[in-house]
Structures are given as structure tokens and as C-alpha cells.
# Entry
Amino acid sequence: MAQVFGPGANTLAKLSIVLGVFAIAGGLALLDSVSRSSYVRYTKLARPQPVPFSHKHHALMGIDCRYCHTTVEEHASANIPPTSVCMNCHTMVWADSPMLEPVRESWRTGEPIKWTRVHDLPEFVYFDHSAHVNKGIGCATCHGRVDEMPLVWKEKPLYMKWCLECHRSPEEFIRPREDIFNMAYKTPANQPEVGAELVEEYEVKTYNHRLTDCWICHR
Amino acid sequence: MPSLRPEDMNITRDDLMNGHRPGQRATILAPRGDDPVQQQQNEVFDAELNRRLDIGEVREKLAGKEGPAFWQSMEELSEHPDFTELMEREFPRMAPRFSEVDRRGFLKLMGASMAMAGLTACTKQPTERIVPYVRAPEEFIPSKSTFFATSMTLGGYAMGLLAESHMGRPTKIEGNELHPASLGSSDAFAQAAILGLYDPDRSKKVLQQGVPSTWAMFRNAMVAQLQMELNTQGAGLRIVTEPVTSPSIAAWIHRVMERFPRAKWVPYDAIGRDHAKAGAQAAFGEHVDTIYHFDRADVVVALDVDFLGEGPAHVRYARDFSARRNMAEDGVQMNRLYAVECVPSMTGATADHAIPMRASDIEKFARAIARYLGIDAPGTDLDASRAMHAKLIADDLKKAGSKAAIVVGERQPAAVHALAHALHDVLGAAGDAVTYIDPVEVDAPERQSSLKELAEDMEAGRVRAIAFLDVNPAYNAPADLNFASLMEQVPFKAHLGLYNDETAQLCHWHVPMTHFLEGWGDARAFDGTLSIIQPLIEPLYDCHTVHEVLAATLGDEEQSAYDLVKSYWQENGLADEKAWRRVLHDGVWEGSAFPAKDLRAKTRIDASHTQESGLELVFSADTATWDGRFANNAWLQEMPRALSKLTWDNVVMMAPSTAEQLNVAKGDVVTLTVEDRTVNGPVWVMPGHAPDSVSVQLGYGRTAVGAVGNGIGFNAYALRSSSAPWIQPRAQIALAGERYPLATTQRHHQMDGIKDRNLVRIASLDYFLKNPAFAHKKSHDPKEDQTMFPLYDYSQGYQWGMTINLNTCIGCNACLVACQAENNIPVVGKNEVANGREMHWIRIDRYYSGDLDKPDTHMQPVTCMHCEKAPCEPVCPVAATVHSADGLNQMVYNRCIGTRYCSNNCPYKVRRFNFLQYTDETTPQLKLLRNPNVTVRTRGVMEKCTYCVQRISKKRIAAERDHRTLQDGEVQTACQQACPTRAIVFGDINNPDSEVTRMKAHPLNYALLGELNVRPRTTYLAKVKNTHPAWAGEPKA
# Structure
């Protein structure tokens, strides 16, 4: 009877066991790095929008963040502005620009503009902007240099692990309240001392690891 | 291939939601016997179904006990092994989801699910959109909630409410502190009303004989028909409405009556207040409304009435009454309540002396009391023990003098009401504990007719056009009128209502009605205070208000509901825009309460007809469906009724002695016969029910209300006759030979300690005054440092705690429904309730003590105790439940994998597990209903009371934003806010001035199961009863 397995079969068997381990490990490593890649996390990936709104352009003109994101200091949601805020200026400025046609159409027809959400936390995370803004966390800390983004991308992954970096030691990221909306603020060299002072002054509740209590974010 | 049956592969989400086998839709009633899985489920019903309880055995067990014994159900008392199994197994025989799975199949399944569980993590987050407004309304911010004042009416009477609105849709109802009928609290009906707004079964379109039509078509038809009626001056026109307190609706009805001078208006309410009105008429010669001031009453006698649980003013009365029972406050002179009642109620449970008495005998009793006090009220003599009780009550009333109040229920005939008025007069209570005002309900005696007269007119063919405005007589009219069949003779019928109900289906036109949360209107409260009803949301469907339909009858040019209401008020005192806005803002028109009248009552009560002996049949309005209008409200259907803890059914209630006499047991189906009408219903043996009396609850057995309510229970209206709507003598009862499973929660989530751990601590007032710390006498709570675990530093920041006052809790379930509304708690259906899987985070345990026939009843709401040394925390394998720095036991849904070890370890059994996909994630209306600040849980996660952490967070963040600390009372949990009696106190125990700190320092304060050393943050204030020293059988400490 002819042999089913040739002489190389033994080698193949031993090799495949050894390589199999590496293959599985490699496969898991691949999965791991893919899931941390910007493909999956959408970091540094400018998202296409119905209107190519440029924060860079508008911030350069001196418009404060809060002109549009009106409720960032009072409420959990920072509020994407309604079409009426755009039209406050754009009935007069660039009133005929083809790029702004979707905005004008929205204004005309009453159909809202459907923006693509860039900073999207899962539904079981309850994030409150006002709590952060009032306690010395600048916009740029989490959102990056939005004032230099022609189209918005997610600068930070917004994973819980990343949030915990600050929640475990807020003194590393806290800044004076006057500089919250200052996008160009640079962390000073003596941040540990400055940070510790600010944490104390702004009454950031760090006793008993309060900031890492689950129910601060997950209800 | 796992050995699942092919049908199992077709399990739809719908089936999972209802816990049913594929192919069965909404069998919320008794499970079918042929399906093997259903049979296994039946085994859970076993203890209730197949084992008939021997009451004699129970009596023996109870007689042998020494000292105070607390028991929740007679099954438990019997100590029969089948019943004790439920106690020992926390999760009673779990109905398996698969029919048979062998070992190999099981392992394959487990392996597959393990692999697939891991894979679910490997997905990209789906892209979401942000869609702002084009022109944003002010105040509409995604995370912000706004509150608007409005009112809810029941039977025409208003209770002021605040509705919380998220992004333009109402999600929660609270009480309105400025409104006299609410004082900031609400009841179960008000809390559940929000579900009524979003009920997917509400009617959505105008229907012409079942075919969808439009409002314009209806209006044209209505105008045309009424043009014809003008020829006869409206002789054939009838307008049937609920009792009307609304001045604007009254004005419109008046205009209709003027246009059609021979038309008649029929104010109709299946529950109604006919006897109360007749009694006032007999006593004063005019119709007046009675207002009780329980804050001033020292002695209260309740004759067959649940004034704490039902009635237009019950929330207010509960608050006032409980304030006089709150022994945790200084300087409170405790009142005394005698409740003479046929059917046990919350009032009886709260009473110092609950006297079960046949409804037909109560008049005799009341007359005897009256005679002792010098009123000419002839009647037969009572037997010795009753006579003694009557004398004691009379003496007590006499001592109280002007601080006495006698409340009489609608069930009692007019003579008893007149008697109460006479008593108030003689005692001097009129003007003090009791005041009289002009009737709040609008009357038009010459233009009104009763339902009976209407039926007679219909039979004689005199009715040509009839409009039913928010009434349903085809369902709830007394059966002897045969109203549904009479309706066929009327040539033009129009119906306005929330549902395409039994009456609508017989009408030519059906118009959907606006829910009070989406329509304009006005109404008066029990004391005359006016409030405007304003909408929180545009009508969800093609809905219209009563005003609009009345305006259509007049053929006026069409106006919106807003214009109709506003124009009326502009001409009647609110012309000033600022005044109008103030009334809208406050929810009350300050100063619009009716002034008290000075009246003398007749102190001679005529002799009554002889009372019949023998079995009587008594009707009660149901505490969940009222007269049937809430039958489709799943929250109310699933709400365990206060005394019986039943859900999803009505029953034929009777006393243990009556059950023994008739040889029936709980769950037996009996046939009730009144004249030639019969109805079948299951028996419920109710300790404390009057003997020789059988009671049924109205509001069930509906056929046209929606998927939730259809076919639930039996229709007791079929037994009701117009001559005896409340007490039916000469009823017959016979065994029907079947058994019927009843889903009650009374034995679910039982704590192991009912016998020996002093769960309920109670003493008489005398004993309490001598031993204020009686609640601690028998407890063996360990000392602060007596623990293996390291002590935790709770000295910083807010530390949340709660006390529940057993003196003031009446067991009304407002907290239960409020919690369900606030926290997106799902409804599970009858089968799952029977399996012990109801999801309510707060449960109200009801304990009996004493005699089986005349027990004392005690209510104890139990929520998560947020133990400082929580036994649930160390056992979670994934740390899904951990402790926060401010004392909360946190439940993190996203970490939970459903081990259920935490629930196993909880001694209070307050944790609830989503065994199935109970939450409806698809119906669009229900998505609007949900509170966006609370995660909606899916199948497989544990949940429990969170001390309303979303409310704590909201207020805490707001305070931090404003750089201040929270004031006491700023954070209110949903249960605390809803409670009519303010029994629940919540706050910061680190704040020395907070109310909760004060309560916890009181000697009455004790921890439930404190000896387990779990350090619960929720503690209780022991109950004190003001029993009469000469009355036999006072409670021992």
C-alpha cells in the first residue's frame, strides 16, 4: 500500500506545532494592534462632514469656542450649534459660497445638518463637560489643537484607560481657569507644584480615590 | 449540533421579552398545560397552585406562638415543606429555557458562547451623527431637564404636578409643592401616567366605524348631525362626560345646553360620589364638599373608606395625617385612627384599631356610635363586643371634641354620610378638624340626568345623538342597564377617549383624546384650587381635547385647544398676561381655594331599611386600574397591590373564616352569581377581611384597551347593578372546579430573619413614652470596630444615607412606581412575576402580626441598603459592584457578567437580575419615555437601587460648578420625592444639620438585620401605635 505521509511529514508536524504557537500569538498580537490602531479608534483621522467646517479658519478669526459651544460651562453637553448660529454671520459673510450651500439649505428647508460625531463615547459613559471645564481642564487637553484643525479629528483615543490617567492624578493635567479656552497653553515645567496647588484651590475631590469611583462616569 | 428543538431557534426578541416560548404571543394569563416547558414553569406555581392550603392547620400554628409573630403569608405560617422551599431557594425552580440539553450539547454551547463573547469586543464603534436644531428652542439642551407645572385629573379632580422634560419630551412626573392636593408628592397613578402618555396602544387616528378618517371629517359630521338636532331643540342630544370641575368645560357645556335647551348632560363616573352627595344633601339640605384637616384631628374614625389611598385629596390627607403620627419628630401629639372596614386597605393597615366588619353592618355600628353621642339615629342594637367597641370609639370622639374627624366611604349609603355630618356638628368638629365648602364639581341639576335615566331614554328611543367624552359606559356601566346593547339604538354616536375602547368600538366616530401631558385644560382640586393643565409635548397622534369636541358640537369656527382655554380665562380673571403666566408657571392660581362655609347639620337621621344578612358581595375600585382606565398601564398592573401583593389580576377576596366555611382555598376558581349574571374569578384569602363578605375589584376583564390590559382578570362590572352598585346582598358563590395561578410577590425576596430578627419593631405609644429606645432592646448590633475588614474613612465629603419612617409609611406604592419611572425599570409580565423575577428596585414588604382574622398590618419598604460593609462587593468576580467614596454601593452594568453571586450574598435580597431581555428596546414610543440619565439595562446584568445616583450627580456637579456645598434637601431620590407622607428621608449624614442625621440620631432608629454587621446606610424608624388602653389585644413590644 502506498504511504499516505511522505518522509517530510514528521518535520511538518513538529514545525506546525511550534509555528502554531507563534501563529496564534502573532494573530492575537495582530488583533491587539489593529484594535489600538487609528483605524479602529478613529484617532487622527479627519472625519468627513456634510459641510467642511474649519475650526482653524474660524478660531483664527478670533471667535471664542463658547460662541458656538454655548453650554460647555453649564451643562454636560457642550452643544453643537444649531444652523441659526452659523447663519448669524453667513447671511452676510460668504452668503453665496457654494461650500455653505448645505447650511443655507438647512436654513431654508428646516432640515437640520447631520454632522458626523467625532468625539463619541459609548452610551454607558456619562461625561459632563461643565464638571471638567469648571475644574481646570482645558479644551485642548482632551480635544487637541482644534483651533489648528481644518477638519476635526479625534486627537486622543478617549479610552477609559486614557481618562484614568487624569482621574488618577489630576495635578498632571490641571490648568488655571483663565487658560481653559487658551488653546496655545503649554504645560509649565513646574506642573507638579502648580497642579497640586490648583487641585487644592479648585477643590478637585481626590480624597479616597473619589475620581476613580465607577459611578462618577458609569451610572 | 446542540440539541435545541427547531422551534427554539426561532425565539424572537418579543418572546424573550415576554418570557414565552416561540409561537405564543402575550399569554400573560395561565400557562397552557400542553407545552412541556410551560409545565415546568407551572411547577413554580406549584406551591400556589396545586397545594391547597389548609387554613385550620395555619390557625393551629399561629395559636402556638409566643410573643409577637410576624408573618407575610399563610403559606409561610403553615411551614409546609413545599412552601418553605421558596424561602430556601432564592431562585425557585428556574424554568429552563431549553427542553433537554445533554452534556455534550451543553459543553458545545458553553464553548461557543465563550468564544463569541470575546469576539463581541472586536468591533469598531459605529458612526453616530449629531443632529442639532435649525432654530433651537431656548432651554433645549441635550443634558438639561426642564420642569413644567401641570395637573392630572382623576374623576374630574386635579392634583398638581411638575413634569420633567428632556429635550421637549416629558420623562418623569413629580408633585407640585405649591399645589394643595400634592404638596410636592404624588401617587402611583400620577407616577404611572407618563407611561400612559407613551402607551403604544393608545388610539392614534380618528376612526369612522373602524376606518381611519380625519378630524375635519369628524367635525363636519358632528356639525351636520347637530344641525339636525336643532330642529328638536336638542331633545335627542346627550353629552356624557366625567364629573366636571373645570370651569371652562362647564362653560362650554352650558353653552351647548343653551343652544340645545332640551339636551341633557350626563356626568358619569363608575366610581363616583353619589352617596357622599346624597348624604350631604340629607344633612345640610344642599350639596357641599367636606374637607378634612387631619393635621388638626386627634381622633379619626374611618368608616369603610381608604382616605389615605384613594380619593381626590388622598395625597394631601396622607401627608397631614402622617404628620400627626411621626413620633420621630418632637412635639407631635399622636393621633388615633379607628378603621372600620370591609375590605382591608392601607387605611386599615395604618390604623391603630382595624375593625373588620361587613359593609352592610357598618351603618348599624355607626348609628350606635351616634346614639352614644346623643344623635337621634334609630337602629338595632349591636352584640356585646361590638357595642363595647362602639362605646370606646364614642368616648374617644367625645374627648377629642372639635378635633375629631369621621370619614365615610362612598360604599356606605347616604344615611351614614349624613350621620358623619351630624357627628361633626355635635362634637363641634365642623369648622375645626372638618370644614365644608361649596361643591367643587359643577352641577346643573335641571339639565343633568343620571346614567340610569340615560339608559331609559335610550331604550325608549329618545336619544338621537350622543357624545361620550372620556367615559366608557359600555364597559363600566352597571350590568343591569345593558348599556352596550342599548347603544345600538342610537343613530349617531361619537366617542372621545385615550383608547379605542369598548364604547368606542360601538360608536360611529372615535376621536383620540389628548393625554393630560399633551393637551390644554384646567381643573379644580379637592378644595377648589384652580390649576391650568398645560402640555409638555405636542400631541403624539391626531388627538383632540374635550374643549375641541364641545366647540365642534356648537359648530363654532375651529380654534386650537390653547385658544379655547386661554380665551375662557382671559374673560374670567386672567386677562393680564403676567397673571396668566404666573398661574401657568406655578401650577396653581393662588387664592382660588373655596372658602369654608358655616353650616349646621341635621342631627336626626331617619331609620334605614333592615340590613340583609347572609353573604354580601362588595365592590372596590382597584388600587391599580381604578375603574379600569389604567388597565393597559403595565407599571400599574405589575405594581404589587398594597395588601395582597398581587399583580396582574383581580380576585374574589374573602376572610379566612369565610374560606373555611365555603371550603375554598386560595387559587380556587369560584362562580359568583347575582340574579342571572355570573362571573368566574379566583379566590384570595385575605387576613383581616370582614367575615361573611366577599369583595371583588372593578377595572379588569377588559376587552378593548390594548395588548397589556386585554383579558387580564375578570369583569366585576358584570355583577354590578344600578340599584346596589357597591354592596350587593344575596350573592351566590360556588366552586367552579378549576384552579387559577395568581402572581403575588408577597413571598419573594424574603429575608432570612422574619422569625427572629425583629425586622419590624413596634410598640404602643405608652410603652414608647416610657422606653424611647425600645427598638434597640432586643438588637445585638455589633460595635463600630468589631470587624475583620479594615475600617474606612468616611469623614470627608458627602456621605449619603436614608431613613424610612415606619410610622408614616402607608404602603401606597408611589415610591415603587416613581422608582420604575425614574430608573427605566422594565416590566416582566405575569409569568415572570410568578417566577419571582419582578424588577422593582424598591419593594414594600407587608407583614401581619396577631390574629389570623384580625391581624395588625405593617409596611416596610426595602431598597438597597448601601451597606458600608456590603456582602455583595467582595464576591463579584469582575468587580462590577464596588463602593464609592460617598458611601454608595455602585452597580456597574457594563462590567457585570451575570454571575448573580452578589444577589446570593445580599441578606436583604434587594438585587434584581435581568434574566431575560425584559426591556423593550424597539417600540419607538417607549424610547421617548426613558430617562436619558440612567442606563437602560439589557439581558444578563444585575441592577438595584442606586440612591438615584443620577440625581446626586446632577446636583453635585451643579454645586461644584457654583463653588458651593449641597444644601440639605437639594438632592431628592425619586422615592423620597414621590412619597406622600415624606416617610423617606435622604441626605448627607456628614452634615450635622441635615434631616437624615437628625432621624438617625433618634432612639427609634434601627438597622434592618443590623446584627449581620453590614452597616446599612438605610435605616428605619420603629413604629409606634396609639392603641386605646382599654381595647383588648394591643400589640406587645
In short: Chain A touches chain B through 49 residues (CB under 8 Å). Residues 71 and 78 of chain A are 5 Å apart (CA to CA). The radius of gyration of chain A is 25 Å.
